[in-house]
Design goal:
single chain; alpha+beta; five-stranded antiparallel beta sheet; four-stranded antiparallel beta sheet; elongated
């Protein structure tokens, strides 16, 4: 077999002619891109050519030509012609507020645009065929916009623009009042009656306890006086001794219900149970101690 060779002729943006020489027929030709076969043809003549179409511009293709009779194969590669690069976009930000901004650009020979938006460290990237975007500013202190024009495998230089900071903008105008909106009624002036009522409620409990102790004291005094009168004591002794006896009984009664008083003063949630234990089991001393500990730890 003579020396075999492969020649690439008439390469365009979307087609090429593959000519091979020196192969014994039949000849197999496989055309691939990035190891993916996209064309396969079997030739029956030793010398000839194959024209391939529907290729992409600016792409590198691989060729494998082999002869089945001699098991000899050759490798070659070629690149289709590239499309002219799209022009660099002319980018500008024509509107900016605290809430939104609008950017526009123009470029020749572009199929789509790749847009990147930076807002205080956050990045958004997307592709669009439009030449204008309307995006929220999200309260960023500074917003940067980058745009690249794409056409097939060709990419233009990027164009960038920065928007103004929010603090450089004038303050927003106040909204006019709605004529259909009924104004709310004026709120009444606050008076110190609430605080006075709170003070009265905080003082009412000690005053009530004092009244109750006074009534018990008077009742005990009358009972003591009646008891002494029945025993035939002198009237002067009754007048002097009966209040003392009543005070002693009142002190003993207060000491007996000391756990209940502590529970009521501390506003313990189970003060009812403490009162029952104090009332019915306090005379056992052990029940009184249990009620006292319960009122302190409850």
């Amino acid at each position: 077999m003579s020396t075999a060779s492969i020649h690439i002729e008439n390469t365009t943006k979307t087609s090429a002619v593959i000519r091979f020489e020196g192969f014994d027929p039949p000849v197999n030709i496989i055309l691939s891109h990035q190891r993916t076969p996209i064309f396969k043809s079997a030739r029956t003549e030793g010398d000839g050519f194959v024209e391939v179409n529907a290729l992409s511009p600016g792409i590198l293709y691989d060729i494998v030509a082999s002869s089945t009779s001699s098991y000899e194969s050759l490798h070659a590669s070629f690149r289709t012609l590239s499309l002219p690069k799209p022009s660099t976009p002319k980018l500008s930000v024509d509107y900016y507020s605290r809430d939104r901004f609008r950017a526009g650009w123009s470029s020749d020979r572009a199929e789509f645009y790749r847009v990147r938006i930076f807002r205080d460290g956050w990045e958004d990237s997307f592709d669009t065929k439009r030449t204008q975007i309307d995006q929220p500013s999200r309260g960023a202190s500074q917003v940067a916009v980058h745009v690249q024009a794409h056409r097939a495998s060709e990419v233009s230089a990027s164009s960038s623009a920065y928007v103004n900071r929010p603090e450089s903008l004038p303050p927003p105008l106040p909204k006019p009042p709605d004529p259909n909106l009924v104004p709310p009624p004026p709120s009444p002036k606050q008076t110190p009656t609430k605080s006075v009522s709170k003070e009265k409620s905080s003082l009412s409990a000690p005053v009530g306890y004092l009244y109750l102790a006074s009534i018990i004291y008077i009742v005990l005094t009358l009972l003591s006086g009646c008891q002494m009168a029945q025993e035939g004591n002198h009237f002067l002794i009754i007048i002097i001794a009966s209040p003392i006896v009543a005070a002693v009984w009142l002190a003993m009664l207060g000491f007996y219900f000391l756990p209940t008083c502590i529970a009521v003063a501390r506003k313990t949630s189970n003060r009812g149970s403490i009162f029952g234990t104090n009332l019915f089991l306090g005379w056992t001393i052990l029940g009184w101690i249990v009620a006292l500990v319960w009122s302190i730890s409850g």
